[in-house]
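Recall that a protein's primary structure is simply its ordered list of amino acids. Everything else, from secondary elements to tertiary packing, is in principle encoded there. The following example makes that idea concrete.
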Amino acid sequence: MSFLSPDPDCSLCGLCSGRTNIVLPSGDPSSPVLLVGEGPGENEDLKGMPFIGRAGSILDGIMAEAGLPREKVLITNTVKCRPPGNRDPTEEEMAACRRFLDSEMESRALVVGLGKSAIRDLMGYTGPMGPVVNRKTKITVNGKEVDFLPTYHPMACVYRKAARESLLEAMRMIKEEFY
């Protein structure tokens, strides 16, 4: 299964000026499940792979605890280049990468939004996390409805034990339903 990728010299938004590498999806391209984070961090920018820094270590540990091998899912971000200082991506930056993200999401049985930025971008929700975490809903991708599961970003687990439990539960739900 293939999806659109940015041109290696992509300059659709200002994030191009500070990047080392464009960070493309990793994992199984034919996976029914896509995990979507907000944006690459420093380690991801240096290596060109999503979720390989501290957040990736946390995610890997939680996935392993749930019995869900990382290589079975596809992992990406709302933007393909690192926002300066690891700030949240802007709406304009996310819009610039949206066609790439849409092509990654459109054939999935489940898209999982990791954290507030991804949830805001993908389902338009801007309220507190509690009411939507681990509650499946639908999003529209290229005119088709796709199941969407909003949950916590792995970095939220550093500060909140409840966030870790919720993310672990999300990974268990994915394992049970798809693997």
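Strands lie at 26-27, 33-37, 74-77, 110-114, 137-141, 144-151. The chain has a mean pLDDT of 95.
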